């Protein structure tokens, strides 16, 4: 028997439905801005973007070109033999190396000292995961080393702090800087992010059993200094996203004049030869935009120039072939 709508009103057990409760959100009836892109608005928008981006690009490019940067690759020149891997792995060889650079322009302090490594994939999944963040932060988590294999425990099953391949491979080249023959202090304080020091590394966590195994990966740590103050380690533990990266080694708090000779005595300890990598020393000043980076300025100039070109092209087209907006006579079926 067919049931009509009026009869359904009196039905005490109506059929259930999946119809949602009415609201302006579910029915897409909320107030919305629906701009009409007239030729005038499009031309003005492109012109405004271009007028903003071009000055930003010029300022960024100028700031980048004001940065003075010296880069000296030393991994090849600091090993005098053909068997570079054997040389670097031999603990009895003298690995002292001296490089000299001439400063082309005045360098205003602070002058940042970086080490640059190429061909080191710190973003490898197994490498990135080989660490224990809880162990670095909490004293009660020293035993949490399951993610740190093969550098989680010693041969007698004592936990390594800090554990994992990231800490184990800590960079251990050292630099002694002389300017015109005078030793210049490299300040290694405050080279790590403040948030990392305060939130990721505990003030009561001290290294233990670190680099005590048969195979030494990199630098050792002072067991009397808490991890929150071992800034070389903190800088290294912030892994890089790309295989070519630079990390801050320290700062020179002294101006260096043009044509000064900078001599750097390097202890070439870090093994990049086994995986075909390279090392370089970088001295660089900084500007309001940071270090030397022409890409940002060029990107702004390119986008700004393109927008200005489009604005000019649309303006010429609009002036030559002007037509009324929303004129139905321009529809194809009305022509």
UniProtKB/TrEMBL annotation:
Its main location: membrane. GO terms for cellular component: endoplasmic reticulum; Golgi apparatus; plasma membrane. It is found in: Membrane. Keywords: Membrane, Transmembrane, Transmembrane helix. InterPro entries: CDC50/LEM3_fam (IPR005045). The chain crosses the membrane at residues 41-63, 298-320. The keyword Disulfide bond does not apply. Belongs to the CDC50/LEM3 family. This is ALA-interacting subunit.
């Amino acid at each position: 028997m067919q049931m009509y709508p009026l009869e359904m009103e009196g039905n005490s057990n109506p059929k259930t439905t999946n119809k949602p409760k009415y609201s302006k959100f579910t029915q897409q009836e909320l107030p919305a801005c629906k701009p009409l892109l007239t030729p005038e608005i499009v031309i003005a928008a492109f012109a405004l973007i271009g007028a903003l981006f071009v000055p930003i690009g010029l300022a960024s490019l100028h700031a980048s070109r004001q940065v003075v940067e010296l880069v000296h690759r030393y991994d090849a020149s600091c090993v005098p033999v053909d068997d570079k891997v054997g040389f670097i792995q031999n603990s009895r060889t003298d690995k002292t190396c001296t490089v000299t650079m001439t400063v082309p322009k005045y360098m205003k302090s602070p002058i940042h000292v970086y080490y640059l490594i190429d061909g080191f994939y710190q973003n490898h999944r197994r490498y990135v995961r080989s660490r224990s963040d809880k162990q670095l932060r909490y004293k009660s988590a020293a035993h949490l080393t399951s993610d740190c294999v093969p550098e989680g425990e010693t041969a007698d099953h004592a936990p390594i702090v800090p554990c994992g391949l990231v800490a184990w491979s800590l960079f251990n080249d050292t630099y002694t800087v002389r300017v015109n023959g005078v030793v210049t202090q490299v300040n290694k304080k405050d080279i790590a992010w403040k948030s990392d020091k305060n939130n990721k590394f505990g003030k009561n966590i001290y290294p233990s059993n670190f680099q005590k195994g048969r195979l030494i990966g990199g630098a050792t740590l002072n067991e009397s200094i808490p991890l929150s103050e071992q800034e070389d380690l903190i800088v290294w533990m912030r892994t890089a996203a790309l295989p070519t990266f630079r990390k801050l080694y320290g700062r020179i708090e002294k101006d260096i004049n043009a044509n000064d000779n900078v001599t750097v005595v390097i202890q070439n300890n870090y093994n990049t030869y086994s995986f075909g990598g390279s090392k370089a020393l970088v001295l660089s000043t900084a500007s309001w935009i940071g270090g030397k980076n022409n890409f940002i300025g060029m990107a702004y100039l390119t986008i700004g120039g393109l927008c200005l070109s489009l604005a000019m092209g649309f303006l010429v087209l609009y002036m030559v072939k002007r037509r009324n907006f929303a004129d139905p006579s321009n529809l194809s079926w009305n022509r």
